[in-house]
């Protein structure tokens, strides 16, 4: 059970549009890890935590949602946060988690990238991002403060490819765009509580455009940027797949024939995102079913209806691959999200 506090009284937090404030202060020491793990899973992404010292965990969080971006402002003592395969299976949301470190230092590791990130004295934040669809680990070495933003991958990936090359790497310190990104965050966090939903969505879209531009600078710095033509083709491939998920005959060869591009070349393009054409098709099908099962209004509909609508033609096979991917049966997965949505008042 997550208990909401009235305020955190911490000067590191900015004021502005908030949906919730939470703290371990009134939670018994022996229950704090479980409490924090449940809170972070509910407000950011599911993670596993461990504490390296005997002093226990002291942590607090303020949570905001503007448009479709969720923002968590966190202050905590040292700990290790790990995104495990089990975490990913239990929550299939396809997000990028962008972290802006304001105080302290941490080591972050994902996709064989390993970086030591320290709060920058000359700028407002030092930043890095992780892909929530893959395992990662953040080791926090000292008391810290950070802003963590959960951003739908599609909002960044629509104009970029090869993000896996720069996960767990610090944003360029000499970037011309990054200071604008951090300034914009300050404006987002000072939005009034009366912010209209359509305005919030526009602000969120503007921010993700700025963030995508900053990430593009990082990709340029990697000297391995995919050409605009290749990015456009990758987007065409992904769009075709998502538009035809209902087709039980959808296969790598069918995609190849429709777009007049060899499967070998498509696989080469998708390798920049760490996947293949066949794996991407199955991933999209499973994620679409999972999203339908997460929606409260769909709770009374037959699960097989969603499986068939996403291109599966064998329910036994669907159930098997779904459980393998999410570590839960489709029925268990829907029940999990029904309980979660009910706890959140949705």
UniProtKB/TrEMBL annotation:
It comes from Marinomonas piezotolerans. Residues 235-336 form the HTH araC/xylS-type domain. InterPro entries: AraC-bd_2, Homeodomain-like_sf, HTH_AraC, Tscrpt_reg_AraC-type_HTH. SUPFAM superfamilies: Homeodomain-like. One of its GO terms (molecular function) is sequence-specific DNA binding. This is HTH araC/xylS-type domain-containing protein. Keywords: DNA-binding, Transcription, Transcription regulation.
């Amino acid at each position: 059970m997550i208990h909401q506090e009235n305020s955190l009284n911490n000067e590191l937090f900015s004021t502005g549009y908030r949906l919730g404030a939470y703290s371990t202060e009134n939670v018994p020491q022996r229950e704090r890890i479980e409490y924090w793990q449940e809170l972070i899973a509910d407000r950011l992404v599911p993670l596993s935590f461990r504490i390296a010292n005997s002093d226990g965990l002291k942590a607090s969080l303020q949570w905001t949602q503007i448009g479709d971006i969720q923002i968590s402002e966190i202050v905590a003592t040292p700990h290790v946060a790990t995104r495990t395969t089990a975490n990913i299976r239990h929550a299939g949301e396809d997000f990028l988690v962008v972290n802006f470190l304001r105080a302290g230092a941490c080591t972050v590791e994902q996709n064989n990238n390993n970086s030591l990130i320290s709060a920058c004295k000359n700028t407002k934040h030092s930043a890095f991002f992780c892909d929530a669809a893959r395992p990662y680990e953040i080791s926090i070495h000292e008391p810290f403060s950070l802003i963590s933003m959960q951003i739908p991958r599609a909002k960044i990936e629509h104009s970029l490819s090869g993000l896996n090359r720069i996960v767990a790497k610090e944003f360029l310190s000499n970037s011309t765009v990054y200071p604008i990104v951090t300034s914009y965050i300050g404006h987002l966090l000072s939005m009034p509580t009366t912010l209209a939903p359509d305005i919030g969505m526009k602000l969120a879209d503007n921010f993700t455009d700025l963030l995508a531009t900053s990430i593009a600078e990082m990709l340029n710095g990697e000297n391995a940027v995919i050409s605009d033509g290749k990015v456009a083709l990758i987007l065409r491939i992904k769009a075709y797949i998502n538009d035809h998920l209902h087709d039980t005959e959808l296969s790598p060869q069918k995609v190849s024939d429709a777009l007049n591009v060899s499967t070998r070349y498509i696989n080469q393009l998708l390798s920049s995102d760490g996947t293949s054409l066949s794996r991407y098709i199955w991933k999209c099908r499973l994620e679409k079913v999972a999203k339908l099962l997460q929606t409260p209004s769909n709770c009374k509909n037959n699960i097989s209806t969603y499986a068939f609508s996403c291109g599966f033609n064998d329910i036994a096979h669907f159930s098997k691959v779904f459980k393998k991917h999410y570590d839960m049966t489709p029925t268990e997965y829907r029940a999990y999200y029904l309980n979660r949505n009910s706890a959140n008042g949705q």
